[in-house]
Amino acid sequence: MASQRPGAPNPPGSGDGRQPGAPSGGGLLGPMRSRRFLIIVAVLFALNIIIGNVLFPADQTKRVTIPYSPTFIAQVKAGNVTDITSKGDSIQGTTKKPVAAPGSKDTATHFDTTLPTFISGSSLETLLTANHVTINAQPNTDSRSLLATILISFGPTILLILGFIWLTRRAASAAGGLGGLGLGRSTARLYDAERPGTTFADVAGIEEAKEELEEIVDFLREPAKYQRLGGTVPKGVLLVGAPGTGKTLLARAVAGEARVPFFSISASEFVEMIVGVGAARVRDLFQKARAAAPAIIFIDELDAIGRSRGGAIRIGGHDEQEQTLNQILTEMDGFDSREGVIVIAATNRADVLDQALLRPGRFDRRVMVLPPDRAGRVAILKIHTRNVPLADDLDLDSLGSQTAGLVGAELRNLVNEAALLAARRGHPAVSMADFSDALEKVMLGAERRIVLSQKDRERTAYHESGHALLGLLLPGADPVRKVSIVPRGRALGVTVQSPVDDRQNYPEDYLRGRITGALGGRAAEELVYGVVTTGAENDLKQVTQIAHEMVVRWGMSPKVGPLNLDEGEDGVALGRPRPYSEATAKVIDDEVRRIVEECFAQAQSLLAEHRGQLDALTQALLREDSLGEREILEVTGLSARDGAAPPAADGTRSAADTPQVAAASRTT
């Protein structure tokens, strides 16, 4: 059985008119990775070279290196040397006529030489003085100054450090958070109030939730009307519903109707590995919202940071999630509802939220976003098919009946899949057949092209015929819409049943009928072949789940009695003790087994009694591969029965909430 989830539509198209309220990157990392930063570094490096080599150029005079003896001494004695400059053992000088180094053709009037250490400086001085050579005391002309040396050696590093400091201060002034790196800046996205992308006209199937929020919209439009009488609008609104029901869409519609700034953020975006970042981002978000008031803050998946602080063991004295939650509690206490800032949060796990979030003064109002009923599904389909060309044979009312349990997000996906399928087939418009095939693909998976042996096809046909036949024989069972032995997903064959109308309660005989019908495939295999296979794996999972919930959740066992012993989804994870003893656990196991065995015996009896119709339906399946509702009734000669299996009224999910899709699965 494929699971179905309740819902509301998403807005058609993608034009929501939003604009980012803040960059998502951390303060300094964005500029450092940008091309602009690299250009700045290159320019600074070029300036360093210019300063070092243009303003402080090295000596470019052409010089030759000559030996001290005999060349230098000979030139002095010949009177060709005019002056010298000495520093340590190094001697530079100038000659009247160009000189050449031994073995070289290069000549110059400037030379370098080295004074040997064993030669006395006084004897050289006497020789130079006798030949009228000027002795200078200045340093060597090619030596750079200390400032030039520092600039050449450390200039690039100094410039990079200065550029880094400049970028850091610029990021700090823009973000104002956590060490100047912008880590405390909120990453909430701001949707333009002047160009709302979503209004209540884009929301269907959740009329009760829309009515709950009309007061919020009216307050944001006309706050004076409520303040005049001393009334205050709720500070916080918590939207609770299963995934895909339209909680985020509903929050955007409120902002679109009220035409106020809408700050949207996911709760997980508050938390970082650095302690204190989440709390800083919460402060920044509320500060921006107050500055833009009247405004709406929308926090999606609130349970990511709002889980109960006493529900699990925490390690360490500084828990980032707890600090973020505490800051949200403080901010919601710290602003006056007359400021016009309203917090809307969405979650599908309201049972795990901290009680401090749910008390009056914080999230004052809780709005249940339930799955759509039949009329709601039709309205959702009309919204999503507004821009889709539809064929004349398409009946949205019939399609709404076949999609029981699907939510808005799934219905939108169904319309998209049908449109893609029609385009692939070259149809000018989307027909009912395209929607039927798309529904099978969404619920059951894509068709697989595998070759089954004749024996496997026959066994699969008997398995699916057992499901379909019991769907016709059991009183109150949901109508059988289709039976097929075409492999899809992990299933080798499927039987699809869906209700006609919605109802709010499930009688015990209906649930037993669900179990009996799910066991029809296994009963048919055992009746015909005398053995069972792995094909009933998926059926047995559903059977076990329904029977267990009948005993522990709905009090449908005389031995257990009218008790609710359900542990909840988080009972084991949070370490809660089991609400019953070992003796009671054994009774529960026995009762679950008893219910399943009684239903299996009923399935065997009915199929044995109608063996001829089982064989006829199987042969028709082997010929056609798939049979629709009308063909099934013609082959079996039985009349249709009307039934229903709507989602539960409280919005919770159970095995009874799903449409019946019995599948002959294979072990992989």
Spell out the blueprint of helices and strands.
Elements: E1 18-19, H1 29-33, H2 35-55, E2 64-65, H3 68-77, E3 81-87, E4 90-100, E5 107-114, H4 121-130, E6 134-136, H5 146-175, H6 178-182, E7 189-191, H7 207-221, H8 223-227, E8 236-240, H9 247-258, E9 262-266, H10 277-291, E10 295-300, H11 303-306, H12 320-334, E11 341-347, H13 355-358, E12 363-368, H14 374-384, H15 396-402, H16 408-425, H17 432-444, H18 454-473, E13 480-484, E14 491-497, H19 508-518, H20 520-529, H21 537-552, H22 582-609, H23 611-624, E15 626-628, H24 629-636, E16 660-665
Parallel strand pairs: 2-5, 3-6, 8-11, 8-12, 9-10, 10-11
Antiparallel strand pairs: 1-7, 3-4, 4-5, 7-9, 13-14, 13-15, 14-16
Helix pairs in contact: 2-5, 7-9, 10-12, 14-15, 14-16, 16-17, 18-19, 18-20, 18-23, 19-21, 19-22, 20-22, 21-22
Would you write up a description of this structure?
The chain has 668 residues and is an alpha/beta fold. The protein folds into five domains: 18-22 and 186-368, Rossmann fold (3-Layer(aba) Sandwich), CATH 3.40.50; 29-57 and 146-182, no CATH class; 64-136, 2-Layer Sandwich (Signal recognition particle alu RNA binding heterodimer, srp9/1), CATH 3.30.720; 374-443, Helicase, Ruva Protein, domain 3, CATH 1.10.8.60; 452-665, Peptidase M41 (Methane Monooxygenase Hydroxylase, Chain G, domain 1, Up-down Bundle), CATH 1.20.58. It is built from 24 helices and 16 strands. A seven-stranded mixed β-sheet has the order 1-7-9-10-11-8-12, sandwiched between helices. It has a five-stranded mixed β-sheet with strand order 2-5-4-3-6, with helices on one face. A four-stranded antiparallel β-sheet has the order 15-13-14-16. A hairpin with a 2-residue loop joins strand 3 and strand 4 (90-100). Helix 14 (374-384) packs across helix 15. The chain is elongated.
